[in-house]
Amino acid sequence: MSALLKIEDLAVVFDTRAGTVEALRGVSLSLGRGETLGIVGESGSGKSVTAQAVMGLIDVPGRIAGGSISWDGQALVQDGAQQHPSGIWGKEVTMVFQSPMTSLNPLMTIGAQLEEVIRKHLGLGRAAARDHAAEMLAAVGISGARRRLDQYPHEFSGGMRQRVMIAMAIACEPKLLIADEPTTALDVTIQAQILELLAGLQERLGLSIILITHDLGIVAGLCHRVAVMYAGQIVETGSVDDIFDRPAHPYTQGLIRSTPRLDEPEDRLTAIEGTPPGLLHPPEGCAFRTRCPIARDDCRAPQALRPFGAGFVACTQPGVDAWGDGK
User: Fold this and answer.
1) Partners of 220 in the beta sheet?
2) pLDDT under 50: residue ranges of the chain
3) Contact 176, 92 (CB under 8 A)
4) Mean pLDDT across the chain, nearest whole number?
5) Which of 274, 278, 268 is nearest to 231 (CA)?
6) What's the confidence (pLDDT) of residue 206?
7) Predicted pLDDT at 94
8) What domains appear along the chain, each with residue ranges and CATH number?
């Protein structure tokens, strides 16, 4: 599968009064055409910052400190410097942000916000843009689409607002959709509808999708591959089947075993004790070693991703059962 998106050794920092926060430290990823990549990890692991870097949204006090990002052969970031190729962001690469409640302008109608995107990137006139906006609302399952163009965000439910955000993201028929926690604050039924919508759009439009989430159940149902992030680094990548059936990194194992499963009822879930390290002064070597039950002295050395099985893992003891239950 040819890579549509390539991220290599990406570093992003934030300059604060307390010092420099190393938000991303040597992140490398690739995404194929028509593929769905899930990025998982605890809050603060760098998932959203990775997406923002791809979208060119790293701004002061943040800055890209190193690495490169290329999109379909064009440089978005080269040698740590942000490039500005035309016609990519908002058209070929789009993003659905975390909160549908706050992502829409409350003072503008839904139609005005959709039409603004369409006119900017497709160059359509007012009438054609309005027709296309109505088509997009209908495509994401909003009934009475043309009538609802004249309504304001407060007249839509949370699930409907998220559908509007997805309609805005696909209006220009992008090649890549980045969905950052697309089901946050939505109830379970609406979550399922949004995920079904994304899967249908991918099949119909041939979309590549990056799905950022902390919900492993969503990843299992929608993604082809998974990247596990911890403390600004990727600690494991692999196919969904490999990650869920044969997790190699102790952190990945802990995440999976701390998630309830209906098919394997447990008396007690695994708990990962402690908290992620602060990134003002990241620990040397494996950042997870202070919480890892099988950490040893050589974990203090830098851990690069290396092949293990069908995936890649950054660990001195890949595949060892870190949590002692033999599963």
Assistant:
1) none
2) 326-327
3) yes
4) 89
5) 278
6) 87
7) 92
8) 3-223 (3.40.50.300), 229-313 (no CATH)
